Amino acid sequence: MEYEQSIIEDLELLGIKADQTTWSSQYFDKMYDLAIQMIKEGKAYCDDTPQEQMRAERMDGLKSARRDRTVEENLEIFEKEMKLATPEGLKNCLRAKIDYKCLNKTMRDPVIYRCNLTPHHKTGSAWKMYPTYDFCVPIVDSIEGVTHALRTIEYRDRNVQYAWMQEALHLRPVYVWDFARVNFVRTLLSKRKLQWFVDKKYVSNWDDPRFPTVRGIRRRGMTVEGLRNFVISQGPSKNIINLDWNIIWAGNKKVIDPVAPRHTSLLSAHLVKLHIDGASESVEDKPKHKKNPKVGMKKVYYSPNVLIEQQDAATIEPNEEVTLMDWGNVIITDIKKDSTGTVLSLAGKLHLEGDFRKTSKKLTWLDAEHNIPVQLTDFDHLITKDKLEDGDNFEDFLTPKTEFDSFAIGDVNLKDLKKGDIIQFERKGYYILDHTTDGKLVFFTVPDGKSVNKYSQKN
């Protein structure tokens, strides 16, 4: 039930709402009848060979000792033992009678029914045995009117089995179209391996922004349009590729940049107060996006006392003229530092007549009184190796630290944002509002396709 709901939620995140939802369990009666039909036509048999032995025999192309059971014996076991999950039934499974010597090992009499006493989330305990994926899918696809089944190429060996099932069951054939799976550098796509990260608490859940899941990348700031454009750009290729994440995020930037409101944030560590002679307290409405007035307006607070980041203050020379973004020029008249060179304070005089085109420093700033606390969170990849080779254990390539929090202050307009809103902090990059904690708005970085690995050294 959990996975079913996750699929539905992922589709909703992509803006897809189904006209109708069907479940394979709706066809359990039909599949049971088709299994009986296969047994009667000599195309399936019940087998109580121990699982490990059966696996070995399939690998070696050996005939099962139960392969020549009579139709009557197979029906007796399937209808009376397996269906009721008796001790004898639990020992058995139903196998398709295809070709135990076939070079394509998926055709070596695959299991199509087996007992399972776990109640089904839709049918409860009505059934004690269930069809396998290999039996279920070709039946449901054909019955439901699927014309083209799209499957990734790792299923290619199973295509002939898929077709055999439909032919053996006298069902309408479905055309199978193979396409290659897209892999990404330093990324695991195996559900089993991703579950390991969840179980070990390396990540919060399947919607963790470090995960290559729909909900994970949506939470990181991927838009539906950006994702759709990426998928279309790849086309139905049959070549397996290993892409850099920058490709998909660069496409996403083209979607968000024209509409992302511009805001200001300053890292809290060693903020520097700049006192500006000639400035007065005021508030003005300014466009959130200079190139797109439809984005709306924001309030900018001005005063004689503003804050700038330490890293900016450290670069300023005495008597230098700098530009405060969305305001104008200031001539720095005084710089105070401690014995370590850390800037303690600055003083200057407002020079609105100055030409911003002639200054080399364009600085972000905030009024010392009108700002709110925010947290900026960035992430690294979960593994350090671009592509794991056969035999590699992913646990040997774990990135030691993958989450990085910075504390900052932001402009007061941020308080009007809602979860999921994407903005640009000027001179910092794109961010998405994820949640609030301890009175702070928490923003996640949205990659822009140009970022380099800032944290861990690639192996």
Automatic annotation (TrEMBL):
Pfam families (alphabetical): tRNA-synt_1c, tRNA-synt_1c_C, tRNA-synt_1c_C2
Keywords: Aminoacyl-tRNA synthetase, ATP-binding, Cytoplasm, Ligase, Nucleotide-binding, Protein biosynthesis
Entry keyword Secreted: no
Span of domain Glutamyl/glutaminyl-tRNA synthetase class Ib anti-codon binding: 260-348
Residue ranges occupied by any Glutamyl/glutaminyl-tRNA synthetase class Ib catalytic domain in the UniProt entry: 2-257
Catalytic activity from the UniProt record: tRNA(Glu) + L-glutamate + ATP = L-glutamyl-tRNA(Glu) + AMP + diphosphate
Gene3D superfamilies referenced in this protein's UniProt entry, alphabetically: HUPs, Ribosomal Protein L25, Chain P
Main location: cytoplasm
SUPFAM superfamilies hit by this protein: Nucleotidylyl transferase, Ribosomal protein L25-like
GO biological process: glutamyl-tRNA aminoacylation
Localization (cell): Cytoplasm
The keyword Lyase appears for this protein: no
InterPro entries: Gln/Glu-tRNA_Ligase, Glu-tRNA-synth_arc/euk, Glu/Gln-tRNA-synth_Ib_cat-dom, Glu/Gln-tRNA-synth_Ib_codon-bd, Rbsml_bL25/Gln-tRNA_synth_N, Ribosomal_bL25/Gln-tRNA_synth, Rossmann-like_a/b/a_fold, tRNA-synt_1c_C2
GO molecular function, one term: ATP binding
Enzyme Commission number: 6.1.1.17
Coiled-coil segments on the chain, per record: none
GO cellular component annotations of the record: cytosol; methionyl glutamyl tRNA synthetase complex
Residue ranges of domain tRNA synthetases class I (E and Q) anti-codon binding in the record: 362-434
Domain of life: Eukaryota
Cross-referenced NCBIfam families: gltX_arch
Family according to the record: Belongs to the class-I aminoacyl-tRNA synthetase family. Glutamate--tRNA ligase type 2 subfamily.
Protein's name according to its UniProt entry: glutamate--tRNA ligase
Species the sequence originates in: Ambrosiozyma monospora
